Amino acid sequence: MPTDATLEVERALFATGAPVVIGIDEVGRGALAGVVAVGACAILPTCGEHPAGLRDSKLLSPTKRASLVPLAHDWALAITVGEAEPAEVDEMGIIGALGLAGRRALIALHAAGVDVAAAEVLVDGVHDWLSPALMSPPSIRTRAKADRDCASVAAASVIAKEHRDALMRADHARHPVYGWDGNKGYGSAAHLAAIAEHGPSPLHRHSWLRAPAGTGDARGASVAEV
What we know:
The structure is a single chain. It is built from 8 helices and 5 strands; from the N terminus they run H-E-E-H-E-H-E-E-H-H-H-H-H. It is of the alpha/beta class. It has a single domain, classed as Nucleotidyltransferase, domain 5, CATH 3.30.420.10. Strands 3-2-1-4-5 form a 5-stranded mixed β-sheet. It is globular, with a radius of gyration of 17 Å. The two termini are 20 Å apart. 47% of the residues are buried. The model is unreliable at 212-226 (pLDDT under 50).
């Protein structure tokens, strides 16, 4: 049975003198359409216990995930979401687009009064795609399964997922043939069939659709990622 995220890692960083910890997670990396979104959750040593039930967004029901959004915002110092558009994914590749979206999320945190430069930043995964996008990166630590284990990263995951899902539902109203209200832009069979029948929309990642099978992230995307 999945367990809730904890503050064990964040508290260890606070104990070494970090004034603020920022959890980072991305959503939409493997989608065929829509933005890639990066959530950033800043917490202080004084933020207290995180909301009960907080965990990786992929392990939550839509109802539970939505209920955690206001609780996470009340708990954290600030939470922001940065986006990179499909055209930016086409232009710079998914890793560059992730960095761009992460930079935008951190800029928004800075605008909200967070001391980003002094922060310890926790990035979900084993690859630091964020540092190359920043002129003067803060201290950045990658951690496998951080979205599962670290409350700040889990909160970033939840907020980014809810943010991107809302965008895809709105985009579905304008492009209903692709079924984005259900597949959220990922490569379901119905979505691929709609692309074959109607062609891609401006919100598709066109470079991925042109890539030979097996060469792009999108070809490995599954409905389970929605």
